[in-house]
Amino acid sequence: MPNSNLVTCPGCGAQNRVADDKLAAGGKPVCGRCKAPLVIDRAAADGPLTVSDATFAGTVEQAPVPVLLDAWAPWCGPCRMVAPSIDELARELAGRVRVVKLNVDDNPQTAGRFDVRSIPTMLVLVKGREVGRIVGAQPKAAIREQLEQALARSAGTVKGATSSRA
């Protein structure tokens, strides 16, 4: 079976499996349930995107999929420890979750907006609203599990409109 990604339909929320070879051939996938065009986040397939105070709204709040925001700083040892796991999650969840990195030293406005007091802090965001929070260096499996739990909770509520902590 060729490699594929799970892509969430922005219209009805259904999970769709989209084969990589069809995307490479220039295919335009549609949802199997409602036939709406699927949005494929190709940039995220290469790893986490970098965001700043200036680019946050366009990259995170306008994202067609939930976002895992890694709040970090270059001098932070625990941040550097989790970086490989964050990179792997970005590639593994491409099309389903957008993974972004925010340097808190260079972007105090966004860090303050989400009350980031210690790093690393990973926020699960839907339409720019926090639905989960993971604080401290944790193994990849724990980050993924908490991410999946936050996404499941947010899917059971109004789309993109609740705030709770994981």
Account of the 3D structure:
- The protein has 166 residues and is of the alpha/beta class.
- It folds into two domains: 1-40, Zn-finger domain of Sec23/24 (SH3 type barrels); 42-155, Glutaredoxin.
- Helix content is 30%, strand content 23%.
- It has helices at residues 20-24, 56-61, 77-92, 108-113, 140-155; strands at 4-8, 15-19, 49-51, 67-72, 98-103, 121-126, 129-135.
- The protein has a five-stranded mixed sheet with strand order 3-5-4-6-7.
- The longest helix is centred in the middle third of the chain and has 16 residues, at 77-92.
- The radius of gyration is 16 Å and the shape is globular.
- Residues 158-166 have low confidence and may be disordered.
Physical arrangement of strands within the biggest beta sheet = 3-5-4-6-7
Regions with little confidence, pLDDT below 50 for 5+ residues: 158-166
Integer count of domains: 2
Structural class: alpha/beta
The average pLDDT is 83
Which CATH-level-2 architecture of the largest domain? 3-Layer(aba) Sandwich
What is the number of strand segments?
A: 7
Instruction: Give the helix level as a range of percent.
Output: 25-40%
Global outline: globular
Let me know the largest β-sheet: 5 strands, mixed
Beta content comes to 15-25%
